[in-house]
Design goal:
With 242 residues, the chain is α+β, with helices and mostly antiparallel strands. The chain contains 7 helices and 10 strands. It folds into 3 domains: 71 residues, Integrase, N-terminal zinc-binding domain (Arc Repressor Mutant, subunit A, Orthogonal Bundle), CATH 1.10.10.200; 85 residues, Alpha-Beta Plaits; 71 residues, Alpha-Beta Plaits, CATH 3.30.70. The chain starts with 5 loop residues before the first helix and ends with a strand.
């Protein structure tokens, strides 16, 4: 995980958050709908998948009223709209590997839009498995280093709860877990009073492609265009800006 900074991605997203907050909440609402339908109901204490999505919603400052409304709506419309989880893989400019997680009710529409976005931005949509072997699925918890967090205490609590690694990049602490242990680590840190900048199961690159800022700009244009798409939930990459 050396060289990969989740915090850098979060800072970039924060610059767009105010204008796109409504879209972010809509996407999380879609994830809640799928979690309720496929994960085992509307009780987060029973449905661990829903519990993880709620943690993600809170990390994105989604109001509790919105979360509860989304859960009730999902429980009442369990048989209406059916969303499909699809993973797209490909390459962006300068050989950057990209994985896109989508939730769609129209596979053909989303595939066409993904191909268009890759092509327009100098990338290429690849076959399933073409880049996923370069990534590991990990639980990732990010806590902003605001000067009030005691590093040694955080590391001890995280490791005792089951975390694999804790890194400090001066601006934030990034905690990595096996997906199986993610909920336990997140719950333990939440009970200890830590606030999360983000928390979720993600695709973490094993190695990174180092790009200068002007090279990285082309990749970020591609990622921004993807994140503006209503069907796209998450975009992962192995780019590191140097």
């Amino acid at each position: 995980m050396s060289g990969h900074s989740k915090w850098a991605n979060i800072k970039h997203k924060k610059e767009k958050t105010d204008a796109q907050r409504g879209k972010i909440f809509t996407k999380i609402g879609r994830e809640i709908a799928v979690a309720v339908k496929e994960g085992g109901g509307s009780d987060p204490e029973v449905n661990s998948r829903l519990k993880d999505i709620i943690a993600k919603a809170k990390a994105n400052n989604m109001p509790n009223d919105n979360i509860l409304r989304s859960i009730k709506k999902a429980a009442g419309e369990a048989g209406s709209v059916s969303y499909e989880n699809i993973l797209y893989e490909g390459y962006g400019p300068n050989g950057v590997a990209i994985i896109v997680e989508a939730l769609t009710d129209n596979r053909n529409r989303t595939a066409s839009e993904m191909r268009y976005i890759f092509d327009r931005n100098g990338g290429s949509l690849g076959a399933s498995g073409c880049v996923s072997w370069m990534f590991d699925r990990k639980g990732v918890i990010v806590i902003e280093n605001n000067g009030e967090v005691e590093e040694d205490a955080l590391m001890m609590e995280a490791i005792e709860a089951g975390a694999e690694d804790v890194s400090d990049n001066a601006e934030a602490y990034e905690i990595y877990t096996d997906p199986v242990n993610f909920s336990a680590v997140r719950d333990a840190l939440e009970k200890s009073g830590y606030s999360f900048a983000s928390a979720g199961i993600e695709m973490v690159p094993q190695n990174t492609v180092q790009l200068k800022e002007e090279q990285a700009e082309k990749v970020m244009n591609l990622i921004d265009m993807m994140e503006d798409n209503d069907d796209i939930q998450n975009v992962y990459h192995n780019m590191e800006v140097v």
